Amino acid sequence: MAPRYQHHHRTRDFGRVLDHAERIVRLVLSLVIVTLLLWLCWTDPVLSANSQIYLKALMAFALAVLMASMAGMLEIEGKSPGWIFRAAGGCAIFALVWFTLPAIVGSLERRAAAELRMESFELFDIRSMEPPGDPRVQAVAGVAVTVPLDISATSRFNVAQPAWVHGAMLHIRVGHDTVKLPWLYFVRHVPGKQNSWLSSDPLTTAQTFAVAAETHQYREVLFASSPQQLNWGQVIRHMEKTGTLELTVFWQTRQERGAVGIEQSCRTAVKPDRATVRAVLRRFRNPGRYVFNCAT
Questions:
Q1: For each successive 10 residues of the chain (296 residues), what is the average pLDDT?
Q2: Domain map of the chain by residue range?
Q3: Which of 22, 34, 139, 286 has its CA 20 to 30 A from that of 6?
């Protein structure tokens, strides 16, 4: 004959197993949270907006579950309902960690190897330039843009490393077309000094220069077009018609032992007053420096 209270013993044994399982789940969840926090502190990544939302939701829910479990708030009287709610809570925690953790890790944005701070662009008739003799910038009625650039080498993985800036392209939107202007060379390295040309720089479209760790450098970068690509008259007439001109600069930066070819961009718009545009149109056949400042 079976013992009278065998069913009660089995129920208590099953309860102990579930209690142990709940403790294991809490331990694993705690380890996941601690590991994630340590990883975020060590790598110091840049989180996108979606990543921040996922991270906050995961941390808030996990912390609430842990606090409630430790305080005994998840204890529900009765037999079947209590285990059902516990099982559902465990599945919810598992699903939350399983589905949100890859979303957090997958949407991390790589930290830029160099911080680029750009000031007001200058757009002008290329014939008014007087750089060291380069036939590419002596073409008639071409368009030139200088970009004042302050570059700082940032830290990656808590280690200060030098950064390199290599490659840049300026996009000018004229009507329905987007014209791409190459990076020719650095113009000035002293703010506001008109004649501080860097004539020793190689006149190539694939220049690279290094920025020492935890320092910054100032450069003004020249972009220019050929007359066949884009001429000064087209730009002025477009500004007269639309009242604005969109410019976007795409930079390529890299860092030692870091990601190669991280792209950064900056967009701005030139919005000159009508009187200035009309004055330039009357005299655009003659060389002259007509500067349009535009805040980035």
A1: 52 70 75 74 63 73 64 50 65 72 62 67 69 47 75 61 74 83 66 49 54 73 79 78 80 61 67 71 58 56
A2: 6-109, 114-294
A3: 22
